[in-house]
Structure formats: C-alpha cells, structure tokens
From TrEMBL:
GO cellular component: endoplasmic reticulum-Golgi intermediate compartment; extracellular exosome; Golgi apparatus; membrane
Record-given protein name: EF-hand domain-containing protein
Residue ranges of every copy of the EF-hand domain listed in the record: 248-283, 300-335
Signal peptide bounds: none
SUPFAM superfamilies per record: EF-hand
Provenance organism: Esox lucius (Northern pike)
Subcellular location: Cytoplasm; Golgi apparatus; Membrane; Secreted
InterPro entries given in the database record: EF-hand-dom_pair, EF_Hand_1_Ca_BS, EF_hand_dom, NUCB1_N, Nucleobindin
Amino acid sequence: QCCLNVCEFYRDGIHIISSSSVLRCKELYPYKVCSTMLCYVDYYNFFFFFIKQDTGLHYDRYLREVIDFLEKDQHFREKLHNTDMEDIKMGKLAKELDFVSHHVRTQLDELKRQEVSRLRTLIKAKQDIEGGNDIAVDHQALLKQFEYLNHMNPHTFEVEDLDRLIKSATSDLENYDKERHEEFKKYEMTKEHERREHLKTLDDEGRKKEEEHYEEMKKKHADHPKVNHPGSQNQFKEVWEEADGLDPEDFDPKTFFNLHDSNGDGFFDEQELEALFTKELEKIYDPTNEEDDMVEMEEERLRMREHVMNEVDTNKDRLVSLEEFLVATKKKEFLEPDSWETLEQNQAYTDEEMLEFEEHLAQQEEDLNQRASDLQKQRDELERQQEQLNAQKVELQQVLWEVVGKHHIFTVM
Ligand SMILES: [Ca+2]
Ligand SMILES: [Ca+2]
C-alpha cells in the first residue's frame, strides 16, 4: 500500500513529503519508492545551508549540526548568502571559517571529536561482527575511507574539514541519480532472471501459456494515452487545467510557477518538479494493474525530472529559478516539443549486461554450492575422526581391563 500512499500524497497536491511518513513507508517497502523519496527530502537546500531534514547521507547528522552552528555566526551567514555555487564548490566558502567566532569554533571542534569517535565505534562494531577480534585495529587506515573529514587531526575542526564536508556532500548528492539508475537496472535484470527461472520449472504447454501471457501484458502496458514531453507547454497546460482546475486559455507561466513552488522559496526543487509529472505518469501506470510496475513508474518520474533539470537549470545549481523557467518557456522545445520516449520503449539493460548478470548469479550459486560441499566434506571427515577415536577408546578400555584383570588375579593369588 506504500506506493499508493505516496502517489496519493502527490495527488493531494502536497509536495513536501514529511520525513516521518517516508520513514514509515521505508519500513514497509525498503526497496521501492520510499528509500528514494527519503533521499530527496531537502536535497538541494544543502547549498543554502537550510538543511532541516534527512539528506540520506550516512553523515547527515554531522553535516546538519555543522551547518546549524555555522549559521549562528553572523559573518559566516553573510558570506554564505554572497557566495555563488561555483565558489562554494571551489572551496572559497570554507576559507571563511578562519573568521568565525571562537565560541562557534569550539563547538565545531567538539562536533568533530564526537564524529571521529562515532566512526571509530562503527569500525569496531563492524570488525566485531566480521569476527576480527584478535586482529589489531588500524583505525587511522580505516578512517581514510571517510573523506568528509580530516582524520589525521581528530581534535579540531579546520578549514580543510569544512572543505571536505562540502565537497563530499556535493559529489555524493550528484552521484545519487547515477546510483539510482544502476539500482534500477539491477532491479530489472533480477525481474527478468526470476521470470526465466520460473519458465524453466514449467512443462512445454505451461511455458507457452506463460510466454503468451507475458507478451500480452507487455502490450497492454505499452498501450496508453500519449505522454506529453516533460516540461513542455502541453504538459504544464494539462496540469493547469486538470490539477489546478484553471482555464487553459488563461495559461500563464509565471502564475503556474508560483502555484507549484509549494514552499514559496522562489525555486522549483526536485520534489516540486517531480510532483508536476504525476498526471503524465498516471496515463501509463495504474497500481491495480498487473502489468504496471510502480518501481518503473518512479524511475520514469526520475527520468522526467532529470530531463527537465538538464534543459532548464542553466546555472546548474539544481534548482529552477523563476527566471530560468521563464527563459525556457520561450524556447522551441517548450512550444513544439518532440515526442517523449517512455521507459518501456527502451530496455533498461543490454543483452550483454544481462548475460554478465546471469553469469555472475551462476558463479555466486556455484560458490555457495562449493562451500556447502566443502562443509559437508569437513563434517564427514570429523565424523570419521570421531569414529576412529571411539574405536581407539574401546581398544584402550579392553587393554585396561586386561591389565586390571591380570593384576586382580595376581593379587588374589
Ligand atoms: Ca520551491
Ligand atoms: Ca538554476
């Protein structure tokens, strides 16, 4: 029901997902829609240092606490608002740390000490689980894996720490979409693999029936009303008319922007953009249909958002400003767009990738079987040794009895 809930959320026109509801969903269906959604919450606001919710990064809490403290410093806050995105990425902002008040610096030092200690505990716990108790723990070497702070100096928070934190968070968030695509590809290949395995268990007639059903469902899924090009006039006009209940004759880009900038900050962020595609996605996906996969729907939503961001976000700050939006509405792509190629028109993976994936699975299975057979052999060997020991014990006892018996006879004599 979780996917449905999230969709309802969008339908209600509430574009900000509360982290508690996402967390609730995440517990129910960790793989599906919701883990993605969680990562989306307040994604871009990182750059404006107003992170109030989870970024999904494993060092999220540290990141937010650092930012909260820095925001308390007036000098830093002012610099923050006057430094542009490129300069922040280049590390100019981090240098301003030198001018931050002593009080804030002391608090940052303490935060860093806590974080280093948290990482050490994590590493220790991981090693305990892996059973490496007797191996001397090289914390320094292991801490190197965590690039968002300078592990060589675990005591004070310096310019380098802020620089690393900004760079790590930026690149981790930028790679987020890439990872999401990879995850989706794996999902599709697993689905195909399971289908093929199921076919193997059927007799000829059953297999034929199943294949026919599969093709029929595929056709049924592909049969849907025309999907508008995301971010085009036609697409937005449909939202304007059907979701906003306004007259298409009155369509006005600026009003549209303000209507759908749900948090009123003057920008379209990821969630606000994604919410605009619900109408299109409903043309293709219906959660009650067997042939419509809601995981695929979320991938399509992501593709649409990525596409529009690429076209419209010219300064690449991952937000669409009103200005960028209005410029885009003058372009040919907005007024006379190409048709949109939906997800099902292209297979998510190549035949080679599928082959490689299946080989990998087969290899894994073989390794498991090998290990099981090794274990069985070890068990047999242990049993054999046990039997041998038992036989020796019996023999020994016999000898002992004989000796004791003779002794007994001797003493009686
Ligand atoms: Ca906004
Ligand atoms: Ca922008």
